[in-house]
Amino acid sequence: DAKTTQPPSMDCAEGRAANLPCNHSTISGNEYVYWYRQIHSQGPQYIIHGLKNNETNEMASLIITEDRKSSTLILPHATLRDTAVYYCIVRVQGSGNTGKLIFGQGTTLQVKP
Amino acid sequence: DAGVTQSPTHLIKTRGQQVTLRCSPISGHKSVSWYQQVLGQGPQFIFQYYEKEERGRGNFPDRFSARQFPNYSSELNVNALLLGDSALYLCASSPWYPEAFFGQGTRLTVV
Fold it and tell me: According to the model, what pLDDT value does residue A95 have?
């Protein structure tokens, strides 16, 4: 199973872009990168996913390096409500497409006024 | 539309007891997964069910079991509770891929 490495914590000023890095150097060719976040006392929330191309949705952008060994989640204009633990996950495909998500420790993002 | 619903929201049990946690997936979602989240850690995969069949099992003892019903709702059972089973238990549903939608979880405290 591919593992991910994230910094344990980051700060960001409100209104500025938050750039959250993730290393996944052992990722396999058919494994996707997913990002989830978990606000205190809530269930994880899906943000975005990608395979090799950069992706953007209404919440964030995902930049994946050409060698796919790392990626960056970008929250373009962070708000106080974006304070959460952000998880970078490589989706594991077992037999029968189990689709389990392997969560690491994540990055605690603190958005400050 | 209702999201993933879990019941109960909080539960206190004594060591050695058994517990059943329930999950109702989003309408139309046929896959349900269970995760355990110990305080300060990321969620750990326990089980996945799709179309009432077990499709994946994490590294948990046989005290943990689950099933999925014809309406795609699911139950997680834990027997012979230990103090270390105290955690937030999360249920996630998905139409299959790509994203999973999580419920708010059941907070289990074993005393």
Answer: 43
